[in-house]
Design brief:
By secondary structure, the chain is of the alpha/beta class. It folds into 2 domains: about 150 residues, Vaccinia Virus protein VP39 (Rossmann fold, 3-Layer(aba) Sandwich), CATH 3.40.50.150; about 35 residues, no CATH class. The chain is about 45% helix and about 20% strand. The protein has 7 helices and 5 strands. Helix 3 links the parallel strand 1 and strand 2. It starts with a helix and ends in a 6-residue tail after the last helix.
Amino acid sequence: MDSRLQRRVQRYGWDKAAGDYEAGWRAQLEPAQSLMLQTAALQPGERVLDVACGTGLVSFRVLEAVGGTGTVVGTDISAEMVEHARRLAVERGKQNASFERFGAEAMNLEGEPFDAAVCALGLMYVPDPVNALGEMLRLLEPGGRAAAAVWGARAKCGWAEIFPIVDARVSSEVCPLFFQLGAK
């Protein structure tokens, strides 16, 4: 699929999902997010980049780890997801969180480099995940840490039993991309 079309499809889909995302996915995504955050080993006072932050599910957990002296900058391709995260930050009084609309492959962020970068279940949606990882690393200070979680192999997905039904009815170039980074 053409990368511009893929980004457009992603923006549209995530914009439409923004209002219901947290209620529908918080509990299901928590185990993968927790493992990724444990791997990131965040410390109080750190400046952290959350790529493909969505509504801020991980961003607000990052703030728990970095405390009041740390910061998180969340980026997402979806304007609606970013706006939702901004509203939540205001509602929760989180002045050390900011959210910007950028695709993972080109984040024009100003300021100090980051101590750590995380991306929870977002890289598999990016047309060029290697470029996105490179962009995350570019924004880190020397010796900074990056941690990501991606979907596993398609055959081991919790929804694997429905794929034959979907595959028989829908011709899509997008769905296989979701599993491109998973272990075989």
